[in-house]
Write a structure and sequence with these properties.
The protein is globular, with a radius of gyration of 14 Å. A three-stranded antiparallel beta sheet has the order 1-2-3, with no helix packed on it. It is about 5% helix and about 30% strand.
Amino acid sequence: MSSEVRAGMLLVASPALLDPNFADTVILLLDADDEGALGVVLNRPTPVPVAEVLADWSPVVAEPDVLFQGGPVSTEGALAVAHLA
């Protein structure tokens, strides 16, 4: 079994992880290489509607139509996870 971390994997925080940025999180890994990793937290919804912050995105957002937060990231940008059918 390979222990290589790669895009598409789900990372589930162990109970021993005490960093408040990642405690109790489930992260979808979007990219990973020797420089680091990028992912989105899937289980920390906020009460903030997407339309309130990103009005242009609201027509294509599925339920729940709120922003999610997590990790030590900038609040000046956003990432989206999409399913293209």
